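Key result, reporting period 2: structure in, sequence out.
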């Protein structure tokens, strides 16, 4: 079963085909690269970018804002730096691509992640994505900071 949940037209769904894979994977359809890998490869526009918690999104080259996917890495669910990165990318920098939460991603975080600008969530491998999907649909009203 896929561990990827995406927001499609505002509705969360479990995606069966994740077209993004780590650049090191031999079956990578579209590669996801670390910031260093991406820069060393000449900043390709068809790649996804994975930022670590200590990467500063405000220091990214302008080309990064045109990428179709940026993954923000949660080393531990208790580390909230990726929430700030997401907010900076969406609201300050105007990023419009898929902003994905990766790493230690759990059901109880999804609503807050969505409010910070995430549009997809790669749930931890040991967790049930159906359960996580229900957690995302649990709240009827959302906080909106853009109003």
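The corresponding designed sequence is given below.
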């Amino acid at each position: 079963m896929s561990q990827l949940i995406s927001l499609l037209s505002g509705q969360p769904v479990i995606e069966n085909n994740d077209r993004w894979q780590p650049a090191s994977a031999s079956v990578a359809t579209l590669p996801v690269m670390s910031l260093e890998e991406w820069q060393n490869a000449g900043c390709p526009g068809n790649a996804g970018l994975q930022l670590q918690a200590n990467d500063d999104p405000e220091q990214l080259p302008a080309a990064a804002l045109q990428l179709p996917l940026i993954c923000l890495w949660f080393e531990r669910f208790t580390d909230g730096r990726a929430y700030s990165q997401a907010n900076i990318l969406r609201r300050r920098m105007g990023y419009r691509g898929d902003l994905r939460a990766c790493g230690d991603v759990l059901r109880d975080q999804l609503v807050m992640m969505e409010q910070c600008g995430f549009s997809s969530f790669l749930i931890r491998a040991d967790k049930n994505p159906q359960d996580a999907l229900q957690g995302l649909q649990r709240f009827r009203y959302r906080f909106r900071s853009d109003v």
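The first helix runs from residue 35 to 40. The CA atoms of residues 4 and 16 lie 8 Å apart. This case is discussed further under Risks and Mitigation.
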